[in-house]
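FOLDING PROBLEM:
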Amino acid sequence: MDAQGGYKFGHGLQLIVSASNLNDEEFGFYNGSRQYPIQREFYHPTYLFGLRWVPTR
């Protein structure tokens, strides 16, 4: 599960928030049945916070 959002403060300033893999699921492929995985990858939840400024006229 992923989520993202943002908030505009005014004068061109924005807050950006993003989160990936919130439920800490593994990523993988399997051939025919889940007991025969081809590829499995494990990632932890990742969070991103940022500010963006776009000059206004």
Remarks:
- Residues 4 and 12 are 19 Å apart (CA to CA).
